[in-house]
Design a protein that fits this description.
Helix 48 packs parallel to helix 51 and helix 61 packs parallel to helix 64. Among the domains are: 103 residues; 121 residues, Sandwich (Immunoglobulin-like). The chain is rod-shaped. The protein is α+β, with helices and mostly antiparallel strands. One of its GO terms (biological process) is anisotropic cell growth.
Length: 1053
């Protein structure tokens, strides 16, 4: 409505008074009818107009004692009606009132009236606030404020802005930043009331993060702090509210407060300590909470001074201040020295008392403070337990919001870090609630971490599961999901809890446990040591009940990766644990042996656990037997070195020795360096007095024998130690099998090495072997003889040749049990070698005593034995000229016992024997026996025949038979013997046959016989014709037998 002229205004002016009467005294329907009639718009148009244009009307109204400013009275009265204030009339009025805010020279009082009316419309109506903003009220008010109005007007403007900005939607208008700028200016230069209103309005503006983050907002800090320091309690409260909003969640703002002039904390400390207003103290504590997010502020001395008033507020019993005080204290305790100061029973008991209840924010803050006090402070933890924190926590943990549950879980983790608490009966009560917490769908990853760690702490004590009501399946199932968590820490703790549970047999055997195998196997091979450690530890128990599941899940491959893993290097505990799991799988089925690589099995030999080593040895033996080519691969993987170490430490000795022998028995392995390097350790094992396992010693001896089949290895420098070890072994009188193997190994050692021969001799080996010559075991005695043969095959051991050695060989030869052809041959050949290489032995008494046994061997032995005897006797015969005469005669006489055998050999043995046998026959002393049996046709022309025979050899005295009277065929059967030191050579036997009668003696004839032939043939007999006067008479014969044999034992030379 537009009013012009004086006469047009006056009626309307008086109409306003009428309407005032109706509005003030009329019914509600009349009031609404007036509001809807357009009276509101008309009244707005009259604002400021009457006072400026018609002063006479105003004077008249005063005379009649009428109310001033009738338009304002009508508008305020109508706007008091909620239907009008929230209806269309108000929305139509708002743009008109906003227009009046613009200063006009002809209406100087109109803007202030509009301010009050807009304020009336804005209060309690969010719709009107938005309408005002859309009508440009924010810009108009900000512009009005920039004109530096009077203090009261300035305060009114700011108050209206404060009302408007309570609507969060208005904070996004561009005008808000201009408003912020003007309010900061008011804080600096405005009146006290204006500053108070500005501080309150800023609280609303600072609800917007975009406004808080502006540089202008930062500029508000200093004037606000000035107000805080110098203002009264009301001003301080408004200032605190603004500062709390401004710095919320922004550490830089908090730092800015700490860096400005003046001391913010000191002001807050004064308020906390000396203010009588709990409301103000609450705000101060809230700001402290904001400021203490900054570590520099927390570490300041004045921050520490705030501890006492904050604790005092906590003790006040006022719910208004307890929560902010606890929150501020909790932040302050992030500094260790503050926590030390606060760590008293009083504080602990207070905080514990705040935990239960429905104020979850207070509960969470109290728990957070307890967590900080409990870190590294065992006494504080015990105080918490005494104050009943565990009971409170367990009563709440499943009923409160997840954020509080999270804090409770973390507190329980801190408490159970104390071993005494973790082992207590109170801790055992935590197990069930913690597992139930983990099953909540809204549980966070941090909650999982805290709960799992607390469980790990508690479950180290097996009795903690005694009161568990949930079934194994209910417990294990959620844990399995943690094994696939994106957090390594959760995976690790989950597997660690699972590992503790699986120490119980009923958990191991539960079918749900089987579902954990696959993720655990995957974690085992992941290559992250912390995860591997816990996963493998869990598999340790699972593999006892579900070994097949572990194998089917790829456990052999993944665990093998751990065994051979070098980067990162697993700890010894992890390595041993993985080895144990793998062995559990292998123990389940030997079919799995071939699925494990040789490198892994060899690595397992390094385990400190005997059960692991045993399984590995079994698997390696299976693979070696199934494929001989595996031996080289095992050796290259370090198997020999590992096996030697096992022997050295006397662990799994028999199996280790068995595998080692099998490897070294492979010719390709013996060609590698590892065979050479094995000599000394194997020798040391035999020499070690702690080596008691006879089977292992036998196999080690056999392995040495295998090694020394290689000539170069037998010549190695370490072979000397092997000689000593083998001799030492023989001294201990081992079993026949071990003795045989040791002797054979020594044979290989001494066969090609003079050094080894001397080593055996110096170790006392000759005496030991001499004793073995008399072993009842034929094979051992024969091999002992062969070893002696190798030892004395040259002049290296000249000083060790003795009569005892020959006596031992003689005794061995003498034993009836050793009279088999094969053994005789070895012993006889050994004797020959010694006599051949050591001439002095031939002159000994032992050599003389040996000859009868040589003769027996010549008689009963096979061709090889006979040949050795012939060689030996020939050696002795060659030395007789250089010997003492008595010894030579004794030896030759004893050797003559062989004459019959030699004569037989000349007839039956190969031609190669003839020369030696004939040579001996023609140098041995013997006995020539001539027997005149009878004569034939010895008749004479005259007289009867009384025949006798005369015999002569060389220049010796003649011999004569008895006289047989009157017989032309006399029978003498009479023998004559000649002893020879050496067989007669080239000599002849002369026999003269005569007859004696009364006329004297007459010659019947004579026989001449060459006796050389009989030495070789032994017996020469037949009918010999008598010759007479240069001719033979074939009718006259003598039957003669000539025998060459050894001399009778009782005959003297």
């Amino acid at each position: 409505m537009k009013i012009q002229g004086v006469y047009g205004v006056a009626p309307f002016y008086w109409l306003l008074y009428f309407r005032i009467h109706l509005v003030c005294t009329g019914s509600r329907s009349i009031q609404l009818a007036i509001a809807n009639s357009g009276a509101v718009v008309g009244a707005i148009a009259m604002i400021g107009l009457i006072e400026s244009d018609m002063p006479n009307l105003v004077t008249m109204a005063e005379e009649f004692k009428l109310a001033e400013n009738p338009s304002q009275i009508i508008l305020r009265s109508l706007f008091d009606l909620e239907d009008v204030r929230t209806g269309a009339t108000a929305r139509r009025s708002i743009p008109l009132l906003v227009d009046i805010l613009k200063p006009m020279a002809d209406k100087p009082g109109a803007p202030l009236v509009a301010l009050h009316l807009l304020t009336q419309l804005a209060e309690g109506s969010e719709t009107n606030k938005v309408a005002m903003a859309e009508a440009g009220a924010l810009d108009a008010l900000t512009m009005y404020l920039s004109l530096s109005p009077q203090d009261s007007t300035e305060t009114t403007i700011i108050n209206l802005l404060g009302i408007l900005y309570k609507n969060p939607d208005l904070l996004y208008y561009e005008s808000s930043l201009s408003t912020l700028n003007q309010l900061v200016a008011v804080l600096r230069l405005g009146s006290r009331n204006s500053r108070l209103s500005a501080a309150r309005t800023l609280q609303n503006l600072f609800d917007s993060e975009s406004i808080r983050d502006t540089e202008v907002a930062r500029q508000a800090i200093q004037p606000l702090l000035d107000m805080l320091e110098s203002g009264n309690e009301i001003e301080q409260q408004a200032t605190l509210g603004a500062l709390i909003k401004l710095s919320a969640g922004n550490i830089s703002k908090a730092s800015a407060m700490f860096d400005v002039e003046g001391n913010t904390l000191e002001s807050l400390y004064k308020i906390l300590s000396f203010s009588s207003s709990l409301e103000l103290k609450k705000d101060a504590a809230q700001l402290c909470y904001v400021l203490f997010e900054n570590s520099d502020i927390r570490a300041s001395p004045i921050a520490t001074e705030c501890l006492r008033p904050l604790i005092s507020l906590m003790s006040s019993g006022s719910s208004l201040v307890v929560e902010p005080a606890v929150c501020a204290l909790s932040r302050l305790l992030d500094e260790e020295h503050n926590a030390e100061i606060a760590a008293t029973n009083e504080v602990v008991d207070l905080l514990v008392s705040f935990v239960p209840g429905t104020n979850y924010q207070l509960s969470e803050a109290s728990i957070a403070a307890l967590i900080k006090l409990g870190k590294d402070r065992p006494n504080c933890k015990l105080d918490m337990v005494k104050a009943g924190i565990i009971e409170h926590a367990l009563d709440m943990i499943l009923e409160v919001p997840i954020s509080v549950s999270s804090s409770i879980a973390e507190l329980l983790r801190i408490l159970t870090n104390n071993s005494g608490i973790a082992k207590s009966s109170a801790a055992a009560k935590m197990v069930e609630p913690l597992f139930l917490l983990l099953r909540r769908p809204d549980v966070t990853m941090w909650d999982q971490h805290s709960a799992l760690q607390a469980l790990v702490n508690i479950l180290e004590k097996p009795q903690s599961l005694a009161a568990l009501k949930s079934t194994p399946s209910q417990i294990i199932e959620p844990l399995i999901s943690f094994l696939d968590s994106p957090s390594q820490a959760i995976q690790q703790l989950g597997t660690e809890v699972l590992s503790h549970l699986l120490e119980q047999e009923h958990f191991q055997q539960d079918i749900t446990t089987k579902n954990a195998v696959v993720p655990l196997v995957q974690l085992a091979g992941i290559g992250i040591l912390s995860l591997q450690q816990t996963a493998v530890k869990a598999l340790e128990n699972i593999s006892q009940s579900w070994p097949k599941a572990v194998a089917d899940a790829g456990g052999i491959f993944e665990l093998s990766k751990v065994i051979v893993q070098d980067d990162p290097q697993p700890s010894q505990a992890l390595w041993e644990s993985a080895a144990l799991v793998l062995c559990n799988v292998l123990r389940y089925s030997s079919d799995n042996y071939v699925k494990v690589s040789l490198a892994v099995l060899v690595r397992l030999l390094n385990s400190t656990m005997e059960s692991t080593v045993t399984i590995a040895l079994g698997a390696l033996l299976v693979q070696e037997k199934s494929n001989s080519r595996c031996a080289v691969a095992m050796a290259e993987a370090g198997a020999v070195r590992a096996l030697l170490e096992l022997l050295k430490s006397h662990r799994c000795e028999e199996s280790a020795a068995r595998l080692l022998e099998a490897l070294i028995n492979n010719s390709r392995v013996r060609e590698t360096k590892v065979a050479k390097h094995s000599i000394a350790p194997l020798s040391q094992y035999l020499l070690d007095p702690q080596s008691k396992n006879q089977a292992a010693k036998f196999l080690v001896t056999l392995a040495l024998g295998d090694i020394f089949q290689h000539e170069a290895l037998a010549r190695a420098s370490d072979s000397v130690s092997a000689c000593r070890a083998l001799v030492s072994l023989l001294e201990d009188q081992p079993t026949d099998d071990m003795t045989m193997v040791a002797i054979c190994a020594l044979q290989s050692l001494v066969m090609h090495s003079r050094t080894n021969r001397r080593a055996v001799a110096e170790a006392g080996g000759i005496l030991v072997v001499q004793e073995l010559l008399l072993s009842p075991n034929v094979d051992i005695a024969g091999q002992a003889a062969l070893l002696i043969k190798h030892l004395f095959s040259n002049h290296t051991l000249q000083e060790y040749v003795s009569n005892e050695l020959i006596r031992s060989l003689t005794a061995a030869l003498e034993r009836e049990l050793l009279s088999t052809s094969s053994i005789n041959e070895v012993i006889l050949r050994t004797i020959y070698v010694i006599f051949s290489n050591f001439r002095k032995v031939r002159f000994s008494e032992a050599a003389t005593l040996c000859i009868p046994h040589l003769v027996c061997a010549l008689k009963d032995g096979n061709e090889a034995a006979q040949e050795s005897v012939l060689d030996t006797l020939c050696l002795l015969k060659e030395s007789w000229p250089q010997m003492n005469e008595d010894i030579a005669k004794a030896q030759s006489l004893i050797s003559a016992e062989a004459i019959p055998v030699l004569q037989m050999l000349m007839k039956t043995c190969p031609p190669s024997f003839h020369d030696r046998a004939d040579n001996l026959l023609h140098c041995l002393p013997g006995c020539l026996t001539v027997t005149i049996l009878r004569g034939n046709n010895l008749k004479q022309t005259m007289g009867s025949t009384n025949a006798f025979c005369c015999l002569q050899i060389g220049n010796g005295p003649p011999r004569q038979t008895k006289l047989v009277n009157q017989s032309i065929c006399p029978v003498w059967n009479e023998g004559f013997t000649w002893l020879f030191d050496i067989p007669p050579k080239g000599q002849k036997l002369y026999i003269l046959c005569k007859s004696k009668n009364t006329f004297g003696k007459s010659t019947l004839g004579r026989v001449t016989i060459q006796i050389d032939k009989v030495v070789t043939e032994g017996v020469y007999s037949g009918f010999f014709s008598l010759s007479h006067d240069g001719g033979k008479d074939g009718s006259r014969t003598l039957e003669i037998e000539i025998v060459w044999s050894n001399r009778p034992a009782n005959d003297n030379m």
